[in-house]
């Protein structure tokens, strides 16, 4: 039998700077260590451990016991170029020193991958939101109430919101600190944490700043990737049919972000400079439908323009009209229109012509999107008393309820392979599709009708108003939001 290293108690005789103790967490074969250099405010941590993932963490942890709102910042550098690509140096907040504890950390990996990792209950699987900045020199984790936020240093060395956040309720005191995991049970790795700062935060006061994050998520794992984050308001991503770029709206413009790029470019939409979050790309990738209220009546109309930009052609005569879906053959658009105070689903030829009303049930009907075979239009309707997911044949006949639950469900989108449906779920009792709510992206298998939660996030309006599947049906794009104190966003 292999003897495990015991989890030592706090090292009272060793000076650990701002921390109280250090020890092994989880099952570790080789003892780690912690050394503090007061002159340079640096900690050299060695740690073994097989992993920090799934339901348990194995690593060496240097910690302090605290409560309330806190922020921990450090520069991180691994010692030695060799080692497992997934060795981790972390800033962590955890409920207990048990290996399976609920925990949140920002982890810098040996290969530069940087992610906010979280386990929301003891023994639960760990998930992550990956940053789009690799191997940042400086990282910060911030806890404000039940929300945890990650910050990373950009090319200029300034800390910026990573766009990664999660909500997790810790009770009473918790442990905050720094740690190292070798990602190899037979190896000990070392990392240096310098310029370490631990702050007890006062309640936020004054101005708050909105941070929007464009994320993608594989449906197989639920582990998310931030593609773009900025202190601004943007909404509603579409994924290009060739998989190479994403489209979203910001400040009345439509913007295009190539996957892997750091900044988006603006698509020329001519005189239409008040575009809203209802837009999308035709299946052949040649055309972009937008909804814009720049016209004389200042109400939303549907337009079509080349995907590369150009003068939009108005399609809808009546207003307000909000685009939501292209038919697979590109000949028909589905949209939501308000006519006489009633919101209903309409279709109209993409080339222009007369609109056709497809729903007439009492209550709000919204969010139409075609199935990939063009046979059905999926939509959301509150005809049963609260918003639920429905579908109908493309001509409006055969309307039937698809989802029946207590939550308020919006914006169904079918995967290109026809196997899955994603939709946005608000908590019971929420009316409309407001912003700034705890929401879930739920995934339904159309084969067996089973539903599971793909992601939990802070969002709502702007998250997935329009189709956002990758063309291979393996991923989704969406927008999450954070309201951060101005002092956090402006930190050096």
List the helices and strands and how they pair.
Elements: E1 21-25, E2 33-37, E3 42-47, E4 52-53, E5 56-57, E6 59-66, E7 70-78, E8 88-94, E9 103-109, E10 114-119, E11 127-130, E12 138-144, E13 147-153, E14 159-167, E15 174-181, E16 189-200, E17 208-218, E18 224-230, E19 234-239, E20 245-250, E21 253-258, E22 265-267, E23 280-281, E24 287-292, E25 301-306, E26 313-314, E27 321-326, E28 332-339, E29 342-349, E30 356-357, E31 365-370, E32 376-381, E33 388-393, E34 400-401, E35 408-414, E36 420-426, E37 437-445, E38 451-459, E39 475-485, H1 486-489
Parallel strand pairs: 11-18
Antiparallel strand pairs: 1-6, 2-3, 3-16, 4-5, 6-15, 7-12, 7-16, 8-9, 8-15, 9-10, 10-11, 12-13, 13-14, 17-18, 17-39, 19-20, 20-21, 21-22, 23-24, 24-25, 25-26, 27-28, 28-29, 29-30, 31-32, 32-33, 33-34, 35-36, 36-37, 37-38
Please name the CATH topology of the largest domain.
Answer: Neuraminidase
Structural class computed from helices and strand pairing: mainly beta
Q: Number of helix segments?
A: 1
Mean pLDDT comes to: 95
CATH H-level superfamily title of the largest domain: TolB, C-terminal domain
Question: Can you name the CATH architecture of the largest domain?
Answer: 6 Propeller
Give the uncertain stretches in residue-range form.
8-13
Task: Characterize the quaternary organization of these chains.
Answer: single chain
> Order of strands across the widest beta sheet?
1-6-15-8-9-10-11-18-17-39
The CATH C-level name of the largest domain is Mainly Beta
Beta strand count = 39
């Amino acid at each position: 039998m292999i003897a495990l290293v015991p989890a030592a108690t706090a090292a009272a005789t060793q000076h650990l700077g701002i921390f109280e103790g250090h020890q092994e967490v989880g099952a570790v074969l080789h003892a780690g260590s912690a050394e503090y250099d007061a002159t340079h405010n640096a900690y050299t941590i060695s740690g073994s451990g097989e992993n920090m993932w799934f339901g348990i963490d194995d690593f060496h942890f240097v910690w302090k016991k605290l409560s309330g709102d806190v922020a921990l910042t450090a520069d991180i550098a691994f010692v030695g170029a060799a080692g497992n690509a997934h060795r981790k140096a972390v800033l962590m907040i955890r409920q207990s020193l048990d290996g399976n504890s609920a925990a949140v950390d920002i982890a810098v990996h040996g290969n530069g991958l940087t992610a906010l990792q979280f386990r929301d209950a003891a023994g639960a699987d760990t998930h992550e939101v990956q940053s789009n900045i690799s191997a940042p020199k400086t990282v910060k984790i911030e806890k404000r109430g039940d929300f945890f936020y990650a910050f990373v240093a950009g090319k200029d060395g300034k800390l910026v919101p990573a766009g990664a956040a999660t909500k997790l309720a810790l009770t009473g005191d918790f442990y905050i600190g720094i740690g190292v995991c070798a990602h190899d049970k037979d190896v000990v790795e070392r990392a240096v944490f310098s310029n370490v700062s631990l702050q007890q935060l006062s309640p936020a006061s004054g101005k708050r700043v909105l941070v929007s994050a464009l994320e993608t998520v594989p449906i197989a794992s639920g582990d998310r990737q931030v593609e773009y984050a900025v202190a601004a308001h943007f909404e509603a991503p579409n994924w290009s049919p060739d998989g190479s770029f994403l489209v979203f709206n910001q400040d009345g413009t439509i913007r295009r972000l190539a996957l892997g790029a750091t900044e988006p470019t603006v698509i020329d939409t001519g005189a239409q400079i008040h575009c809203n979050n209802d837009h999308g790309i035709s299946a052949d990738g040649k055309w972009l439908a937008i909804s814009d209220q720049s016209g004389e009546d200042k109400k939303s109309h549907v337009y079509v323009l080349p995907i590369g930009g150009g003068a939009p052609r108005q399609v809808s005569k009546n207003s307000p009209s909000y685009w939501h879906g292209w038919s697979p053959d590109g000949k028909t658009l589905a949209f939501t229109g308000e006519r006489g105070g009633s919101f209903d689903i309409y279709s109209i030829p993409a080339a222009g012509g007369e609109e056709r009303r497809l729903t007439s049930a009492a209550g709000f009907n919204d969010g139409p999107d075609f199935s990939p075979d063009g046979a059905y239009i999926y939509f959301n309707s509150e005809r049963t008393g609260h918003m639920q997911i429905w579908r109908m044949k493309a001509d409006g006949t055969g309307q039937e309820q698809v989802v029946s639950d207590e939550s308020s469900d919006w914006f169904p989108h079918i995967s290109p392979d026809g196997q899955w449906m994603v939709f946005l779920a608000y908590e019971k009792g929420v009316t409309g599709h407001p912003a700034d709510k705890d929401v879930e992206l739920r995934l339904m298998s159309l084969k067996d009708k089973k539903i599971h939660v793909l992601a939990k996030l802070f969002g709502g309006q702007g998250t997935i108003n329009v189709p956002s599947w990758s063309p291979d049906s393996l991923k989704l794009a969406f927008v999450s939001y954070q309201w951060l104190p101005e002092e956090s966003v402006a930190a050096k």
